[in-house]
Amino acid sequence: MNSLRQYFLRFRDFQKNARLFIYITFILAVSQSVFGLVYNLYILKLGYTREFLGTLESIPVFVTAALAVPLALLCVNLPLKKNLIIALGIASVSALGLAIFPSKAMLISFRFLSGFAGAFMAITAWPLMARYSTEKDRNLVFSFQFAFSMLAGFLGNLIGGSLTDWAAVLLSGGAESAAAYRVTMLTGVALMAAAILPVFYIEEPPQKARAPIKLDLGGVKPLAAFMVFLPQIMIGFGAGMIMPYLNIFFKTGFNLQISSLGFYMSLMPLSMAAGGLIGPWLVKKKGQVGAMITLQSLSIPFLATMGFSGLILPTVAAAFIRTMLMNASSPIYSVFMLSRFKKEAHPLASAMYTACWSLLWAFGAKLSGTLQMDFGFTMSFLITIICYCAATLVLSRCFLHEDGKNAPSCQKGGFSPAAGAADYLAGKEEME
User: Which of 41, 83, 205, 353 is the most exposed, having the fewest neighbouring CB atoms within 10 Å of its CB?
Assistant: First the structure.
């Protein structure tokens, strides 16, 4: 309890822009959870197949993968604040379109628009947090942002389940309908638009005070960067097989009412929040790479239990623990990855990683939608388990020996940043 109190006391020491971004992502995560709880169910209620749903899930991620790197190069000198406004604005318009236009062509079109928003967010979020944090507090800033987003997801799922119940009673005599789902989705859209307001309070240095940043694509070693990205994008492929369909897995597998589904789904981001807070503690004990390997290895048996127990309580418990362990490594990886690039290359590095991860995630989502037509979720869970095992093995073989040492750079020219964990433990204070 005292450690938790210390975490929240440290929050007050973060730079103002870092705190504002955490508030923004909190509101955004609430909106996305409200919207996302019923989105898949809404598509199926409209009469579309799971295969088409898989197509819709993969479209924005393919678009993000295609655009992330070009946008990083084109928008490198555009203030991060403007990028964030663009991302949230496009995301709000896209979500609104998905909620009110049910035709196949319009759904596909607005999912393409979602991909544009994702690409802008990809070149903004991590670089913004890295810019407005120090080496001393960076692991904690990333973990706080992750944990607050997950707490927001917990709240959003509860709101979404209750709101859909209320809308179903009001509009369709208690039966879950597309109209009831639409009410919930529109509420999510309103919250998403509200997330834009705090962005205007972010204070960036005047444009004239900042030297133009020149990104040298040739200055990044492609193979070295790919090896840094590889473990996480393998996880991305496995996650794409399961995570977009988690609400369908619970609802169809156990015949849940929407309010019960909202409660069980709310436990997932709550477990992620807990994982986000234990991440920095484990980094102190085992280093960055050791912490990621430990968390990912422990999560795999729970993933298997979740997929194959067939009983609601063991499945929910396993899903909670698996989600907590696996996602605790996510903010740790963010710092681990960015520590291998110059700060000027952070938008490009973030975009390259997002492009790779998104591409594999989209393939996983599309493949899973097709496999579910014949095999249910059996093959999807088996493939995900294999991906998680392989990713943990690669991380162990390629990077464990570097833990706590100066990380080899993915830049040409001898830049050699200290590993994030070492700087964090040493308490080194350096502004980015």
Answer: 205
